[in-house]
Specification:
mainly alpha, 5 helices, 62% helix
């Protein structure tokens, strides 16, 4: 049985093996690009609730802002607040969006999108 690294073949078909890390980074980049286009479509949709738009902006502003609730120099808790607050804001924003709007935005972005929270 071959390991996962040996099983990856490059996209040009030359038969050379592609490292798993490079392949994973490409997948992550593609997923991030798709997710960002989905969030942008949701934000620009006319039937998206105003509170959802505000929460999306707050999440982006919190990520870009040098000001944190708990400063980053505090060990563990400084980084933990970023990993909790931003996903929570995104979850709340996506939770308020009607299902029809999410379906329209996902079909506009070829259907390869993050799942809508329950």
């Amino acid at each position: 049985m071959t390991n996962d690294v040996e099983a990856r073949i490059d996209l040009q078909g030359s038969g050379a093996r592609e490292p798993l890390l490079k392949y994973s980074l490409q997948e992550m980049r593609r997923g991030l690009k798709t997710s960002l286009s989905y969030y942008r479509a949701i934000y620009e949709h006319p039937r998206t609730p105003r509170l959802s738009k505000v929460l999306l902006w707050v999440a982006i502003a919190y990520l870009a802002s040098p000001i944190d609730i708990i400063p980053d120099f505090v060990p563990i808790l400084g980084q933990l607040d970023d990993m909790v607050i931003v996903p929570l804001l995104l979850f709340l924003a996506l939770r308020m969006i009607p299902g029809e709007v999410a379906a329209e935005c996902s079909s506009a972005n070829s259907g390869c999108l993050p799942m809508r929270p329950l």
